[in-house]
Amino acid sequence: MEGRETPTRPSRTTPSSPRVTPALVKRPRFQTLARFWEGQDVLARWTDGLLYLGIIKKVDSAQETCLVRFEDNSQFSVLWKDIFPPAVPGKEQLCCVCNSQSCTSDNKLVHCGKCKHAYHQECHVPSVPSDTDSPGSSWMCRQCVFAVATKRGGALKKGPYARSMLHMKLSLPYQLKPLEWDPLHLTNKQQCYCYCGGPGEWNMKMLQCCRCLQWFHEACTQCLSKPLLYGDRFYVFECSVCTRGPENAWRLPLAWVDVSHLVLYHLSICCKKKYFDFEREILSFVNENWESLLLGDLTDTPRSERYSNLLHALTAQKDRFISGKEIKKKKCLFGLQSRVPPPAPQSTVTELRLQETDVRSPAPCVREDGGPETPPTQNKDAKHSAKDAEGEAEAAESCYTGSYTKSTQS
């Protein structure tokens, strides 16, 4: 599909996807009942947090997945929780979450002005205000708001859709507590991340909240001034649920070894190769994207000095980098000893978190009653076609000139 990043492992077409507990993610009941069929047009959420058009080719009830063919003819298994079919004609009076049409005076059915799905006011996250279905109102559900506002490089920051997205982001459509994480808290078995509850890969342009430790897609955040590089963990980030308002993000200081490592990792994901020419690819990328890299104290480094600083880092840190000379290739080639992102500066993160604790009491992300995370104030508004989102995304990605063809999965 145009604008869709191509995975590097085709084997993902037949993954052993974990089953998601229905109680964990608040998803429409028709999905948990496997009401999908071959040939159905759907929107599927990818690991970048964006929605893409596709057609269901096969339904796997045992694994709760569908094999989806996208517009670029690639095929991937997608969990039911990440698939969004259009409203079914004749079902407009059924809530797409609880599959019921019964209503009360304070829990009516409201209809999304974009996708036409119906929701009980209390079934939607966050709950829908009572005046939403009044004449002249144009309420949009959470999925539609995110489809409109999310884009590569960071979500919309201004306008009605941006404001609606911020209101939606004050609560999560799932519970954090039941998620089963690996020891390093990088991945969870349920493949449930971010405000959108979609899949993700921590090293593929995601930020980790320093309070709740959940990971968030670049495309769903509204606090970034520049797009992320793959593997960039040099941020301290606070999500909207934890701040009970707009997100916060602080750029951490980078040394030359960190810059070299980060750029090499980014290029290795984009270009799907290990070794890069120092002047033609590494130095060129750094110079062309100097302002976008947000290098803090290194920003004032003259262009004439960047060559020697980068080269010294690449040749001195043999535990991280390997030169072509060591493998009997051109000495101007450099690559990573292991294709892993640069380590996050944990001590700096801890210090910043302690400083923040001194001036602001932490806002818990998990309610004691076990319900979806819901701060005091909520509101809503706002989905657009996947094509429109991809068009806006291309402009955001152009901030990194010469960043080559991108891929998402390593």
From TrEMBL:
Positions with biased composition (Basic and acidic residues): 380-390
Subcellular location(s) of the protein: Nucleus
CDD domains named among the record's database cross-references: PHD1_PHF1, PHD2_PHF1, Tudor_PHF1
GO molecular function terms listed in the Swiss-Prot or TrEMBL record: chromatin binding; DNA binding; zinc ion binding
Record-annotated PHD-type domain positions: 92-147
SUPFAM superfamilies with a match to the protein in the record: FYVE/PHD zinc finger, Tudor/PWWP/MBT
Keyword DNA-binding belongs to the record: no
Membrane-spanning parts: none
GO annotations of cellular component type: nucleus
Keyword Zinc-finger in record: yes
Region listing for Disordered, in residue ranges: 1-21, 341-410
Single biological process term from Gene Ontology: negative regulation of gene expression, epigenetic
Keywords: Metal-binding, Nucleus, Repeat, Zinc, Zinc-finger
Name of the protein in question: PHD-type domain-containing protein
Organism: Pyxicephalus adspersus (African bullfrog)
